[in-house]
Known about the structure:
With 430 residues, the chain is an alpha/beta fold. It has 15 helices and 14 strands. It folds into two domains: 45-76 and 326-429, Alpha-Beta Complex (Aspartate Aminotransferase, domain 1), CATH 3.90.1150.10; 88-323, Type I PLP-dependent aspartate aminotransferase-like (Major domain) (Aspartate Aminotransferase, domain 2, 3-Layer(aba) Sandwich). Strands 4-10-9-8-7-5-6 form a seven-stranded mixed beta sheet, with helices on both faces. Helix 8 links the parallel strand 7 (206-211) and strand 8 (236-240). Helix 3 (89-102) runs antiparallel to helix 12, helix 4 (117-130) packs parallel to helix 12 and helix 5 (141-152) crosses helix 10. The radius of gyration is 22 Å and the shape is globular.
Amino acid sequence: MVTTEVYKGGENFDLRQVLLRGRTLRLREKTEVLGGFLAHLHESNENLCMRRIVSVADRTVIVIDPITHMRKRMLMFGSNNYLGLANHPHVCAMAEQAIRDYGAGVGGPPLLNGYTGLHRTLEERLAAFKGTEDALIFSSGYGANVGLVAGLMNPDDMVIYDAYSHASFCDGMTLSGVQSHRFPHNDIGRLRSILEAQRQNSSRDIFIGVEGVYSMDGDISPLDVVAGLAAQYDAIMLVDDAHGTGVMGPTGRGTAEHFGLEGKIDVVMGTFSKVFAATGGFVAASKPIIDYLRYFARSYMFSASLPPAVIATVLGGLDVIEREPGLRERLHENVRYAVEGLHSIGIDVHPDAAIIPLRIPVGMNIRRMAFKFHSLGIFVNSVEYPAVPVSQQRFRISLMATHTREDIDNLIEAIEKVWNEETAECGKVR
């Protein structure tokens, strides 16, 4: 069974464990604990969660400042809208046309009345895009991972997964009751040793769970090596390519394409909330696996279908990815330019995709730094304990193709200013 602990790696943590500290409390007591925690954040100007954005999702956004309650224009470096598809003219036109043709929603799950011609078209496009026989659409990326894992795995099966796997993958394991082994992040030697031990002792199904691009560190899984191990030990390979789809590979088809492995990964999962800047998720695999999941993935069977406008948004996004390769090229150029800027101010980073983690030296106050970035008009996401250990707190920068060099220069200037000020503050404390 999956073990429970405060830090599990990647985007998988339990704030309840930190706040409640294992105590069994009544509902009123639990809400009071959280209320006190939030009140402290507000009083110290440290709560930047759920900043209200009142403009289109773009390289700049209008935010309602949580302190002054005034509108504030900010440079957006915290969005997964990697190619700027959220307000691309073709994408918006496709969504508008879908509403005219199909209405605002379908009012039912896919196995009943919620399966339109538009939904089937997207499934076929996704399968072709990922080099698989078929695909199916979930109403959320979370639901896709939970449904995939819980639908495919039996309690007697074994899944070996990377320590930085997403919470949705881990929750799917919990729901299925599957046996599991976690290996240290990208530690191929440890993965090999676990596979060897498990395959010697059992003929049951063994699954390997990795991600194409890991969102916390912006690095990639060595899929070529993992795929070789999967073939050697007769394991079923599952790749969560949420942050790789549309970004990685010569034509943007994802991390499998980046390694020349299209059509050689057993199951590929992806989301519509990253490069497509919408909502939803998908699984692409062989037709027998997809047919099986249609009836055994509970998050698919018991969820209403995505509205036609969302489906059309993703279809429009696929059009843009295929027709405008310059967007992806500009994205990677922006990443290289940002990396050069960070190196110039003494910050060493080596991202593989469009995510750049800025590790915070121990002793620096990440909440104070976050507020400084906000005050400078730079929207970045802070990742603090318990999402990561105290020694691994960081800011996570997400680049977009639509960022200008001036935008990135402003980002680097702000980082240098915040770093220098916080270093001086730490010196005073000592």
